[in-house]
Amino acid sequence: MEYIVFFVTAVVAVIGALMLLLSRNAVHSALWLLLNFSSIAVFYLLLRAPFLFAVQLIIYAGAIIVLFLFVVMLLGAERAEDQRDTLAWQRPVALVLVVVLLCEAAYIFLARAGETLTAATATTEEFASPALIGEALFTTYLLPFEITSVILLAALVGVVVLHQHQSRTGRPTEQAVQDMSEIAPEPTQTAASSR
Amino acid sequence: MIPYSWYVLLAAILFAFGVMGVLIRRNALIVFMSVELMLNSANLALVAYAQRWQQVNGQIIVFFVIAVAAAEVAVGLALLVTIFRSRQTTNIDEINTLKG
């Protein structure tokens, strides 16, 4: 039964990845990527990782795909047609190299096919329940956890800085001044109205 | 029980598709999506190894990879929007100067 689920999900994941590459429309590519992320989440469930299953769906399928779709529609990129390459030899060489990579992966898989059944030992106990992951995150991996919060803060600040409209002189433009005055009205007005 | 090497082979196949996407497509957004595909294939391999050795460390790494990938996507897309504002194109062949 597990083999059937694995094969079906693997086929869905590969089809999603292939159609991501072949779609002319960027919105369709984002939706195929969503299908791929969902099948990876199913693999996490098969691999006894329920916490990662939930995290994958929430963050990847729920936030990152939405961000991609927003930007695609903001830039109007779904209408963009792929022009001809400036380097005409790039596509054939890329295809050849990727086929070589796939052959290498298949060779390594087949050469080591005899060692694979040692994973069939009893795995009845949960080794990665959310409680155990939380315990590991807050004891052994506390420092990376705190640093991740700094990374997220840096990303947030970076995105806000990138979207400021700066004029050449480095002072904020009129539009930026107007935006800020809408968010934070001048204190003199509220002080005058409270008297 | 499915042998862990099947998961790793599938991860290698998905990674190869991601590499093909980065090399072949001209649209910058498709290139970003292919990079996310590569990150997910690496996560799949890590979780497969975590299950093979019955340790939670592989899944902790995946947790951090997902968080860092989310931050990277946010900043990368903000950069792309900024570039698009001055160039009006998402074709990476045309974004070939540092000026502007």
Top keywords for this entry?
heterodimer, A: 195 residues, mainly alpha, 8 helices, 71% helix, 0% strand, B: 100 residues, 3 helices
Describe the structure.
- By secondary structure, chain A is an all-alpha fold.
- Chain A is 71% helix and 0% strand.
- Chain A is built from 8 helices and no strands.
- Chain A has helices at 2-22, 26-46, 50-75, 90-111, 130-138, 142-162, 174-183, 187-194.
- In chain A, helix 1 (2-22) runs antiparallel to helix 2 (26-46) and helix 2 (26-46) runs antiparallel to helix 3.
- Chain A is extended and about 70 Å long.
- The model of chain A has no long low-confidence stretch (mean pLDDT 83).
- Chain B is an all-alpha fold and 100 residues long.
- Chain B is built from 3 helices and no strands.
- The radius of gyration of chain B is 17 Å and the shape is elongated.
- Chain B starts with a helix and ends in a 13-residue tail after the last helix.
- Classes of the chains: A mainly alpha (195), B mainly alpha (100).
- At the A-B interface, helix 1, helix 2, helix 3, helix 4 and helix 5 of A face helix 1, helix 2 and helix 3 of B.
